[in-house]
Write a structure and sequence with these properties.
- By secondary structure, this protein is mainly α.
- The chain folds into two domains: 420 residues, no CATH class; 72 residues, no CATH class.
- Helix 2 runs parallel beside helix 8.
- The longest helix is centred in the middle third of the chain and has 38 residues.
- It starts with a helix and ends with a helix.
- 50% of the residues are buried.
Length: 494
């Protein structure tokens, strides 16, 4: 389901490319959509679920399903009440600002902002389902969003004569429709497994208060990460002179994070309830084994993914995006940003597992402090690199550098705060993955359209890409088998 969601997300980006290319209106839309997404990551899938799932797991283990249902109902009503109040205040402020000084970003934000309440409710309900070891419904939710956006983008673009801003306004309204459906599917799935959550307004109960106590410091940490993301977009929007920075970064970021979303996020999502359970049972040995396996498997996937993306970036971007309003000049800009994002793919992957390891142990302070420290570094690197010839790609490179440093700092405190790590075996595992990736890169270079062999091959881009991806994956797997990489066996078994 996660894979299907990411493929549909790619189709969504392709639809944007066809109808909008790299344009200022699309940058406006991306900036406006970042605001509800920022709230989603702060209160939804980030801080809220990370603080809620460990408490929910303990509550259900100690007191049974009924107590767990009351806890879920209490947290859900509290979150919805807080976000609704924030929504009303924000909407009034935005309406006043738009009346005084109209701007497309303000107009689109006014439409999209209610989505933050819907998606945060969806994230909490998804957290309950994940804790019950039901992963399908939470993964289906983003599929609905992408299908509705794609349909709206295509129908309005093909059959309605609209200017880009009017077109994007209708897409924004379709996001709200998708948000409602995302909530509905989680509720229906919970009822289907006989776990019906009833509204509970006892916000002073010890279990609800425990979630609140955990979420407050976590919001500080997560807000640092998400603030970095928002600042990245704003710097690209304000300092890249043609106003196309966010549009460019959006295309590159999606491709760069595609392996992250399909594999690393899936592993992190699945492993978090398991780590929380091991922590609740005080099973330190089981916790360490699961944690180590998650880290090594993520690294094993991330290294060849990054190398592969860098090698095929020009072909990939041209084939997927370059049509309609998307020009060859747009391709060059997106390729540069994609390469910069890919350099940090290994760090993004490890970061997701490491942070969840801290959260499962209810240690929020360490990742919070590290995240806050990274804000200043990321901002300084953004300002420094965006002024170079890299333009918006400098923002992508700053993100990669910051992520690598953050992973290093998280690793320094693992032994003290989480569990004993076998760094030697993990380094050896990473080295073998790198060697296999290097052999794969050599094979891809031979197939490259600029190499002697590649130029002589009379094949079109579609076939070339299929050969590159399939052949590259095969070469990597064969070399990994020869090197006896345990992670390959883990992936083949599970």
């Amino acid at each position: 389901m996660t894979l299907a969601s990411r493929v549909l997300g790619l189709a969504r980006e392709m639809a944007y490319g066809y109808f909008f290319g790299i344009s200022a209106p699309l940058s406006d839309f991306r900036i406006a959509f970042q605001i509800p997404n920022l709230t989603r990551r702060l209160f939804g899938e980030g801080a809220l679920t990370s603080s809620f799932i460990p408490v929910f797991a303990k509550c259900r283990s100690a007191d049974g399903d009924e107590a767990a249902k009351r806890l879920a109902g209490g947290v859900l009503t509290l979150v919805v009440a807080i976000l609704t109040a924030m929504l009303i205040v924000a909407e009034v402020g935005l309406l006043i600002a738009q009346a005084k000084s109209p701007h497309p970003v303000l107009q689109l934000t006014i439409i999209l902002l209610p989505y933050m309440v819907l998606i945060c409710a969806t994230a909490l309900l998804a957290g309950v389902l994940n804790s019950l070891h039901r992963f399908a419904a939470p993964a289906i939710a983003p599929i609905l969003l992408n299908v509705i956006i794609i349909a709206t983008t295509w129908i309005c673009g093909e059959y309605m004569e609209l200017d880009p801003h009017a077109h994007l306004k209708l897409i924004a309204y379709s996001v709200l429709v998708a948000g409602i459906l995302q909530v509905v599917i989680q509720v229906v799935w919970l009822r289907a497994i006989k776990f019906r959550i009833v509204a509970n307004f006892d916000w002073r109960s010890p279990s609800v208060q425990r979630v609140v106590m955990l979420i407050v410091p976590m919001i500080v940490g997560v807000s640092a990460i998400q603030l970095n993301t928002f600042v990245d977009s704003m710097i690209a929007y304000l300092l890249v002179e043609d106003g196309k920075g966010p549009a460019t970064l959006g295309y590159a970021q999606y491709l760069g994070h595609l392996p992250l979303g399909v594999f690393a996020t899936a592993i992190a999502t699945a492993i978090f309830p398991l780590l929380s359970q091991r922590a609740a049972e005080s099973d330190d040995d089981g916790f360490a084994k699961s944690f180590d396996s998650g880290l090594r498997t993520s690294l094993f996937i991330a290294i060849p993914s990054a190398v592969g993306l860098i090698m095929i970036a020009p072909l990939l971007v041209r084939l997927l995006y370059q049509r309609g309003e998307f020009t060859s000049a747009d391709t060059d800009r997106v390729v540069t940003a994609l390469v910069c994002y890919s350099l940090g793919l290994w760090a993004y992957s490890l970061q997701q597992i490491m942070v969840r390891g801290y959260y499962a142990k209810e240690n929020m302070k360490t990742p919070v402090r590290i995240s806050v420290a990274m804000v200043g570094l990321n901002f300084a690197l953004n300002i420094l690199l965006v002024k170079t010839s890299l333009r918006e790609a400098g923002v992508a490179l700053a993100t990669a550098i910051t992520a690598a440093i953050q992973v290093g700092l998280l690793g320094v405190f693992l032994k003290k705060d989480i569990c004993e790590m076998r760094w030697g075996s993990m380094a050896w595992s990473g080295l073998k993955a790198f060697i296999a990736s290097a052999v794969m890169a050599a094979a891809l270079w031979l197939l490259d359209e600029n190499s002697t062999i590649g130029t002589a091959l009379p094949i079109n881009d579609v076939v070339r890409l299929m050969i590159a991806v399939g052949g590259g994956a095969t070469v990597f797997a064969v070399v990994a088998k020869i090197l006896k990489c345990d992670e390959l066996n883990i992936l083949l078994r599970k």
